[in-house]
């Protein structure tokens, strides 16, 4: 089989590897489509994501969908040829965090496409993968594979908004309108937010935010408007920080009203972040991190399969596997793209 393997920053090669065979309890998936995520871009351009450097040839990708190609011993409830979205994470179920209902913090997590462990958990940008049957979420035949692969980023957004609590009637600020930010916006709108303001550095990203239901968009260079939000001890009930920048977090803390909530979804740079952290105390803010997802993946696959949420406006580009380096360059250029997919036909 062929796979997109990162050998060094900005150098993905199409290598021929052995196709993995399903063990007992596993299924072999023929991957049909996969989305390029922000962490994939970080690995590609920087050779690391957050605190995790790439230390060996590394297959990227953790947002994919495909069809069942073979069943391992003991697998039931799935059939060869069935379309599935594939959850990239497999928790152990026995460590203290799994027992506490926090499987996203599993001490033995096997999250495909992550360099957090060594040897790395190789990713899914390859023609075939072998995964636990529990990681496969059936989707209708009418849902195309690229749409089905959006279950992973949608699950991230669903988890973040679950942590935020009820948004009914809330004034919400979204900081950062990349793919995850725009999905957060779409979900917040559906969850009953009364008013959503979107903030970003890029005009094109703000146009997408408007398409997905933002009531107001503001360029991050509009300092006068942003400064207004900090007056009278803040403006917004809930702030969703999805930029992953220290400037974005600082804005979030200043814009949240006293007693408000700030959800950190963006992956901040490694090390210390110089922000106005004292505002967490002085405004009695609830500052809550959000990491990956728990059982929201199955919900996300169902939401997409039943067309309860439509993320197709975000899906701006698609490339064949052989053009993977070009795909990553386009995905990195926010003046051109939003969500970029690879196809493995």
TrEMBL record:
Pfam families: ADH_N (PF08240), ADH_zinc_N (PF00107)
Species this chain originates from: Paraburkholderia azotifigens
Domain Enoyl reductase (ER): from-to ranges: 7-342
Superkingdom of this protein's organism: Bacteria
Residues in the signal sequence: none
Lineage: Bacteria, Pseudomonadati, Pseudomonadota, Betaproteobacteria, Burkholderiales
PANTHER family: SORBITOL DEHYDROGENASE
Record-given protein name: L-idonate 5-dehydrogenase
Keywords: Metal-binding, Oxidoreductase, Zinc
Requisite cofactors: Zn(2+)
Protein family according to the UniProt entry: Belongs to the zinc-containing alcohol dehydrogenase family.
GO MF: oxidoreductase activity, acting on the CH-OH group of donors, NAD or NADP as acceptor; zinc ion binding
């Amino acid at each position: 089989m062929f796979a997109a393997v990162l050998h060094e920053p900005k150098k993905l090669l199409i290598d021929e590897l052995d196709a993995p065979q399903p063990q007992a309890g596993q299924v072999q998936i023929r991957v049909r489509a996969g989305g390029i995520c922000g962490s994939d871009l970080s690995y590609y351009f920087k050779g690391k994501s957050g605190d995790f450097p790439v230390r060996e040839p590394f297959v990227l990708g953790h947002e994919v969908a495909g069809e069942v190609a073979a069943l391992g011993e003991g697998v039931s409830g799935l059939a060869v040829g069935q379309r599935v979205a594939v959850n990239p994470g497999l928790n152990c179920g026995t460590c203290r965090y799994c027992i506490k209902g926090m499987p996203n913090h599993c001490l033995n997590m096997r999250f495909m496409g992550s360099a957090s462990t060594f040897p790395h958990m190789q990713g899914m940008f390859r023609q075939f993968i072998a995964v636990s049957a529990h990681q496969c979420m059936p989707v209708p035949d009418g849902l195309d594979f690229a749409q089905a692969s959006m279950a992973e980023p949608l699950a991230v957004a669903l988890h973040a908004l679950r942590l935020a609590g009820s948004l009914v009637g809330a004034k919400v600020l979204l900081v950062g309108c990349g793919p995850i930010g725009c999905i957060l916006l779409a979900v917040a709108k559906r969850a009953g937010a009364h008013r959503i303001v979107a903030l970003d550095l890029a005009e094109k990203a703000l146009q997408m935010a408007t398409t997905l239901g933002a009531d107001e968009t503001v360029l991050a260079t509009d300092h006068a408007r942003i400064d207004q939000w900090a007056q009278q001890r803040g403006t917004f009930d809930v702030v969703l920080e999805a930029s992953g920048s220290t400037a974005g977090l600082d804005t979030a803390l200043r814009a949240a009203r006293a007693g408000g909530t700030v959800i950190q979804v963006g992956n901040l740079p490694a090390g210390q972040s110089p922000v106005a952290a004292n505002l967490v105390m002085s405004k009695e803010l609830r500052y809550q991190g959000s990491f990956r997802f728990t059982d929201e993946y199955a919900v996300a696959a169902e939401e997409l399969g039943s067309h309860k949420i439509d993320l197709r406006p975000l899906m701006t580009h698609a490339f064949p596997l052989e053009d993977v380096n070009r795909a990553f360059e386009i995905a990195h250029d926010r003046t051109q793209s939003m969500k970029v997919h690879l196809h493995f036909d």
